[in-house]
């Protein structure tokens, strides 16, 4: 049946229900592997300056990750990098908080899972993750948005149902 199950978690009541349902599924399917993913949609550019002798312009990168790091010349980002003075580590704090919260819930249910932090647009990032990781089933919570809020904000659940390459279980 399902071998790779992922649950999208954002701390909302709907995502907590989704996590509970995903844990139930994994316990019923002992060969299944569970991944809990959360997405930080707050992105900021990283700006650093290299030593004057090696560069004449700032090195700017938007969300450089391991996929792009392989194309960077050796030494970029090692020495000479200085974070902006107004550096805000709220992204790091958010990730720590989410990871701790998820791990506590998994421990309380005596469940083993991979807990992964992703960055970017939630719907696109989750869709790409489930395609890359060959996820059989994505478990998501219903956002609970209604009326004008749903119209203006849009629903990640709705976008995932439309764009996801895997089966989706929406938990209410």
Structural description of this entry:
The chain is globular, with a radius of gyration of 19 Å. Strand 1, helix 1 and strand 2 form a beta-alpha-beta unit. It folds into 2 domains: 122 residues, HUPs (Rossmann fold); 42 residues, no CATH class. The chain has 172 residues and is an alpha/beta fold. This is Nucleotide-binding universal stress UspA family protein. Belongs to the universal stress protein A family.
What topology does this entry show?
Blueprint: E1 4-8, H1 13-28, E2 33-40, E3 45-48, E4 59-62, H2 66-69, H3 90-108, E5 114-119, H4 122-132, E6 137-141, H5 147-153, H6 156-163, E7 167-171
Parallel strand pairs: 1-2, 1-6, 2-5, 6-7
Antiparallel strand pairs: 3-4
Helix pairs in contact: 4-6
Put simply, the count of helices is 6
SSE order in H/E notation?
A: EHEEEHHEHEHHE
CATH topology type of the largest domain: Rossmann fold
Structural class: alpha/beta
Mean pLDDT: 75
Radius of gyration, CA atoms, in whole angstroms: 19 Å
Q: What's the number of domains?
A: 2
Q: What share of residues are in beta strands? A: 15-25%
What is the CA–CA distance across the termini? 23 Å
Low-confidence stretches: 44-85
Main pleated-sheet profile:
5 strands, parallel
Give the CATH architecture of the largest domain.
Answer: 3-Layer(aba) Sandwich
CATH class of the largest domain: Alpha Beta
Q: Helix fraction?
A: 25-40%
Q: What is the multimeric organization of the chains shown?
A: single chain
In the sheet with the most strands, the strands line up as 5-2-1-6-7
Shape designation: globular
